[in-house]
Specification:
Layout (H helix, E strand, L loop, with lengths): L2 H9 L27 H9 L3 H12 L3 H14 L7 E7 L5 H14 L4 E7 L12 H4 L1 H4 L4 E7 L6 H15 L4 E5 L5 H7 L4 E6 L3 H6 L3 H4 L4 E4 L6 H16 L12 E4 L8 H17 L2 H28 L1 H15 L5 H9 L1
Parallel strand pairs: 1-4, 1-5, 2-3, 2-4, 5-6, 6-7
Helix pairs in contact: 2-3, 2-4, 3-4, 3-8
Family: Belongs to the SIMIBI class G3E GTPase family. ArgK/MeaB subfamily.
Pfam families: MeaB
Protein name: Methylmalonyl Co-A mutase-associated GTPase MeaB
Length: 355
C-alpha cells in the first residue's frame, strides 16, 4: 500500500493493525460549531406560538453542544414566568390499546374546543444514532397538520433517565408557547410509567375489553398510578363487552390505593373510531383539575415534582462530574477488579475513591 492509499484509508476511518487484521473504524467526533441565535428573537417567536421557533428552542435544549445548552438554559430562564399555565396529562396503555389513535382523536376534539395541544412522546432513542425511532408525526398525521397542535418525540438517548430533563424542559417551552394542554405518551414499558407519573398532573391508563384476562398480567402498581382507566376500542361488537369491563374495573378500584388524594379513580369506555366517549374523557379531566386545585393537591404535586426533578438532576450532575476525570475512571476500574477478586471490601473501595 503506497502513502496515498494509506492516507485515503485513514481518512475513511478504517484502521489496520500490524498483523494486517482490520480493526473497528475509528470515528473522530468534533465539537460542532455553536450556532448563532438571537435570544430576543427566539424568545419572542416561542411566545408568539411559532412552531418553528418552538422546535428550534427544543433542539437547543436537547443539544450536546455546551454552547447550545448554555444558550438554551438562558432562553428557558427568560421564558420561565410564562410557564405552568397548562394541564399536564400522562397517557399510557397496554400494547395494542391504541394510544396514538386515542391521542389524535382526543387532540382533535380539544383543538376544536379552542385549546392548544402539545403532544410529547417518550421515545426510546436509537442506541446507535441517539435519534427518535417512533415516528410520532406519521402515526398522528392529522393532528400533526393541525395548526393548534404540536407533536414532538422526546428522545431518551437510550436511557429513561433522560426523560427527567428533556421532557420536563420541553413541557415548559410548550407552555411558554401557549399550549394549555400537554399530553405525554409513554412507551408503556415498566419504568417509563413511574417517571411520567412524576411529571404530570393527571395520569390516564388505556386498556382493552376483557379485564379478567388482562388483569392477570397487569401489575397492581400501574393501576395505582392511574387517575382514570379508559377502556378503549369500545365500538362495534366490543361495545357491550367494554361496558362490562368498565364495571369490572370499578369493582377492582375499590380495593386499590387512589393515585391522587381526594379523587376517586374513574373508569369509562371510549372509542376513537366512533369518536364516542372522548368528550366524556375531557369532561372528567376538567372535573379532576377543578377538584385537585380546590383541595391544594394540584399545587403541592407540582412543587414535589419540581423538588424531585432538582434532586434527580443534582445526582446526575454529581455522577457526571465524578467520572469526567480520566484518572478517576481508571481508579474505579482497578477497584472494581479488586472487589471482584475479593482483595478489598466494597465499603473500603468506596472509601478509597473519596479519600
Amino acid at each position: 500500500m503506497d502513502r496515498e492509499q494509506g492516507s485515503r484509508r485513514v481518512m475513511e476511518g478504517v484502521n489496520e493493525s500490524h498483523d494486517g487484521m482490520k480493526s473497528a473504524p475509528r470515528k473522530k467526533f468534533k465539537k460542532p460549531p455553536a450556532r448563532n441565535f438571537d435570544l430576543e428573537e427566539l424568545a419572542n417567536g416561542v411566545q408568539s406560538g411559532s412552531r418553528l421557533h418552538l422546535g428550534k428552542a427544543i433542539t437547543l435544549l436537547e443539544s450536546a453542544n455546551p454552547d447550545d445548552k448554555k444558550f438554551g438554559q438562558e432562553l428557558l430562564n427568560r421564558l420561565l414566568p410564562e410557564t405552568g399555565n397548562s394541564i399536564r396529562i400522562g397517557i399510557t396503555g397496554v400494547p395494542g390499546a391504541g394510544k396514538s389513535t386515542f391521542i389524535e382523536t382526543f387532540g382533535e376534539l380539544l383543538t376544536s374546543l379552542g385549546h392548544r395541544v402539545a403532544v410529547l412522546a417518550i421515545d426510546p432513542s436509537s442506541s446507535v444514532t441517539g435519534g427518535s425511532i417512533l415516528g410520532d408525526k406519521t402515526r398522528m398525521e392529522s393532528l400533526a397538520k393541525n395548526p393548534k397542535a404540536f407533536i414532538r418525540p422526546s428522545p431518551t438517548a437510550g436511557t429513561l433517565g433522560g426523560v427527567h430533563k428533556k421532557t420536563r424542559e420541553t413541557m415548559l417551552l410548550c407552555e411558554a408557547a401557549g399550549y394549555n394542554i400537554i399530553l405525554v405518551e409513554t412507551v408503556g414499558v415498566g419504568q417509563s410509567e413511574t417517571l411520567v407519573r412524576g411529571m404530570v398532573d393527571m395520569f390516564l391508563l388505556l386498556v382493552l375489553t376483557g379485564a379478567g384476562d388482562e388483569l392477570q398480567g397487569m401489575k397492581k402498581g400501574i393501576l395505582e398510578l392511574a387517575d382514570a382507566i379508559i377502556v378503549h376500542k369500545a365500538d362495534g361488537p366490543n361495545a357491550e363487552l367494554a361496558k362490562k369491563t368498565v364495571r369490572e374495573y370499578k369493582s377492582i378500584l375499590h380495593f386499590l390505593q387512589q393515585a391522587t388524594e381526594g379523587w376517586k379513580t374513574q373508569a369509562l369506555p371510549a372509542s376513537s373510531f366512533e369518536e364516542s366517549g372522548i368528550r366524556e374523557v375531557w369532561d372528567m379531566v376538567q372535573e379532576f383539575e377543578t377538584a385537585a386545585k380546590a383541595n391544594g393537591i394540584f399545587k403541592s404535586r407540582r412543587q414535589k415534582q419540581t423538588k424531585d426533578w432538582f434532586r434527580s438532576m443534582l445526582t446526575d450532575e454529581l455522577l457526571s462530574r465524578f467520572f469526567d476525570d480520566r484518572n478517576r475512571r481508571e481508579q474505579v476500574k482497578e477497584l472494581e477488579q479488586k472487589v471482584m477478586e475479593e482483595q478489598v471490601t466494597v465499603t473500603r473501595a468506596i472509601e478509597t475513591l473519596f479519600e
